[in-house]
Amino acid sequence: MDVPAETPDQRLRARAQCVIPGGMYGHLRSDRLPAGYPQFFERASGCHLWDVNGRRYVDFMCSWGPIVVGHHHPVVTEAVQRQMAAGDCLNGPSERMVELAERLVGLIPHAHWALFAKNGTDATTTCVTLARAATGKRKILVAQGAYHGAIPWCSPNTMGVSEEDRAHMLTFRYNDVASLETAVQRAGDDLAGILVSAFRHDYGVDQELPDPAFARRSRELCDANGAALIVDDVRAGFRLTLRGSWDLVGVQPDLSAWSKAIANGYALAAVTGNNRYRDAASRLFVTGSFWSSAVSMAGGVGHARRARKHRWAAAHARAGPAVPRGGLPRRRRLPVSAFGRAVRPRCRRCSSTTMPISPRAQCFTLETLKHGVYLHPRHNMFLSTAHTEADIDFALEATKAGFAALAARGHSS
Question: What does the pLDDT average to over 303-315?
């Protein structure tokens, strides 16, 4: 990318190095991406975002999932601004909390109640704690490689994590009934819950929708053992369906964790549950200084209001994945394919399932970035209802340049 020797992004990185460990942390660290990826952004609107260097991109990460109806959607923005004028962090919650809980209970079949927090880790941790509180048991089953948050009991990075933090966690293979049954047997009479992702979306691996037989068996095993079936819908919730993702396979959980897409970019998370867990939820002490933020909940209300009027999963499906489409990679004989639900596409075989990011992925995504399309070389991407056919066509033109660059380098690994 042709940019001046020292850009605003580079200057901000230098400043950040002095006051932020590593210059940035977590999944937002662009120094782990190929050189040329922007670290700092200036603004966003609809399906577009601008980095601090002034470059505009068609956004296929959508803030890593939260943006469903586009940045600054007028319905959500109006609800937020109205609440902001009245107050945000008050001595207690506003009416928005009750209104949002009513809307979630009205949308989600298994939900008889809702609790609110700020991020997905809050929600999954509350679900696990609730399962243990209600059952009096300790063992929680999780799929190998599944991501449920970034604190010791579930972080993918074990730095600073002790064995005791995960002493009562057992693993199984996602969609593998026999593996799940073995894990249940290992838990014995101490099984508190089975925690499953809405679908397999582990970082850098092929996505898998839940097998209906696996989902049904998960439900049966929880019922037989008095354990909680917990669906982590933090990434997928309100994207595949408004009713909870496992509704698509005909299975209702006891508890669900929600976050990313429920307030279109405003910091909010939720736990929904059935009446079996209502008493434990009413007695459990969970809280946070900003968990009752009225502004975020107003964003959630505005978002839910629009959700009832528009079937955005269908809109996503019509838009389709931005990479690749139309047989272009096959015509160039490139080892690239797109897979996953249309709302969450990822480019396969253009990226490696092991670190570091493969040269193919670097080549392809950097070339599309140069042409004004923001993709990720390993992570699944996201669509919003703000993406128009014109935006998709623009992105496809950019991917042509990416495929051409791969072909020119002989698509080496």
Answer: 66
